[in-house]
Amino acid sequence: MHIDPIEQFQIKNLVPLVNIGGHQIAFTNSAAYMLIIVVLVSALLIGTTARRAVVPGRLQSITELSYEFMATTLRNATGTEGMKFFPFVFTLFMFVLFSNLIGLIPYSFTVTSQLIVTVILALLVFFIVVIYGFWKNGWRWVLLFVPKGVPVYFLPMIVPIEVLSFLTRPVSHSVRLFANMLAGHITLQVFAAFIIMLAGYGVLGWFGAVLPFFMVVILFALELLVAVVQAYVFAILTCIYLNDAIHPGH
Amino acid sequence: MAATNATTEAAAGQSKFPPFQSEYYPSQLVWLVLTFVLLYALMARLALPRIGAILAERSKRIADDIAAAQRLKERSDAAHAAYEKALGDARARAQGIANATREQQAAAAEETNKRLEAKLHERLAAAEQSIAATRAAAMGNVGTIAAEGAAAIVERLIGKAPAAAALGKAGKS
């Protein structure tokens, strides 16, 4: 029996919609999961706060904890000036977090395992940083690439490195999340496939299948951690990059 | 599962690694933008202001309650201090009244004593006076009695009563 560990990332056109300049726009399984993310995040954040309880219940506590957690993270990274980006950072965090977590449900689809999705999100952050940096600081913003306290004769070497590291940010920002999700899901799928393959070899195989089964359980717990940590990493990197737009001085 | 895989691959027309199948990029981009903007709008317009309001309301309520508790504590402290002060005042006043009464009674007693003493002195003086008068009267009578006695003795001795004038002179010497 052959199980393709890549098959879970396959996008399927569910409803073809329009065709613009040879590019087909369709309602895909990925789009369906994006909508599920929006519905679940909204249901959690809006539904649990509907009563506006002064003494929160369990679900409202989750909502408030996530709010305060992201608010504290953003304020620590960017100061109070950065709080105008709070809705954006919070949306980004929740979108990535729910995408990662929903992706762990068997037979589901992981939106953040698609490179194009993480690239778009990382480029969104990148352009917000560049545009807001110039709009807020004018041309002084390029001083971001001139570290303070470095001797002048080193600058011709340092500045290109700084520029290059700034330009590669969207790459590392997006690939980190994408690769983590992809690798984790492939590993899970491979070990899960071992269970089925071994079980196909009769009674002895059933006992053999216990080993990959335990591996899957352990890996699943690890992936749960990775899902949360990667969402947090994506959000905190966004905070750090935004700080460069707000306070370009190192 | 292999069958579905084959059909999707057939539909895609190629067997590239799914995340790099660029023919799905436009759909992904469109739906990501739509859903992300929708989620952003819901968060920024509805969810986050509401959660922020709940948290602000809670911290305000807690601060208010603490302030109210502080106010009540201050009032109870003030009441306690007033009570202590009233108690102290009352105690001092009671002490004062007791002292005043004691002094007053002592003064009254002394006055009574003095009056009685004065009265006693008066009576003593009157008694002494009357004693002196009686004694003086008695002393006056002694001269007469002595003269009479002397006259009687002289008469017995010489057979003739002395002259009254001589008697008086002798009685006085």
Descriptive key words:
heterodimer, A: 250 residues, mainly alpha, two-stranded antiparallel ribbon, 7 helices, 2 strands, B: 173 residues, 3 helices, 89% helix, disordered N terminus
Describe the structure in your own words:
The complex is a heterodimer of chains A (250) and B (173). With 250 residues, chain A is mainly alpha-helical. Chain A has seven helices and two strands, in the order ββααααααα. A two-stranded antiparallel ribbon of chain A has the order 1-2. In chain A, α2 (58-78) packs across α7 and α6 packs antiparallel against α7. Chain A is globular. The N and C termini of chain A lie far apart (57 Å). The mean pLDDT of chain A is 90. Chain B is mostly helical and 173 residues long. Helix content of chain B is 89%, strand content 0%. Chain B contains three helices and no strands. Chain B has helices at residues 2-12, 25-158, 164-172. The model of chain B is unreliable at 1-13 (pLDDT under 50).
